[in-house]
Design goal:
With 150 residues, the protein is α+β, with helices and mostly antiparallel strands. The chain has a single domain, classed as ph1033 like domains (ph1033 like fold, Roll). The strands form 2 sheets. Strands 1, 4, 5, 6, 7, 8 and 9 form a 7-stranded mixed beta sheet that branches. The protein has a two-stranded antiparallel ribbon with strand order 2-3. Strand 2 and strand 3 form a beta hairpin. The two termini are 22 Å apart.
Length: 150
Amino acid sequence: MGSFFIFVAMNTFLDDKIIPATDIVNVLLNKNFWAFSENAPVKHKLKPGDTVLFYVGGKGRHHFVATAKIKKPIQKIHEDKLKILQELGLSFLTYTVELSDVNWFKKEIKIVPLKEQLNFIKDKKNYGLALRLPVREISEEDYKKITSEQ
């Protein structure tokens, strides 16, 4: 059985406009890939068959929107994906992972009602600290607690 991860999307800035995190998630998941910077923690642990939850963070948005499987190992970005990332203000991301079995939730799963039950959140008052990095590994137990809300 594979491992479980959360990929976090936040707003980005391109020139003088904001690209909403929800737009980033929509574009990347519809293209079946996700992207990371050189310094993204635990990206080296990602392997085919692992399961991912997608979290949209930022002001007024604290929820999970989908799951997917990792299809291929992480790799340096290819030219075709670079153009997509540039349009989203994410040209600083240099690694990608291909996804399969993207499953959008019927309704978003808010984290606030779940935070007390989730083991990966150590500081329940400041739960956002547990989701400040672009990728984090979680337990299967936490994954099931979150997805059982669907």
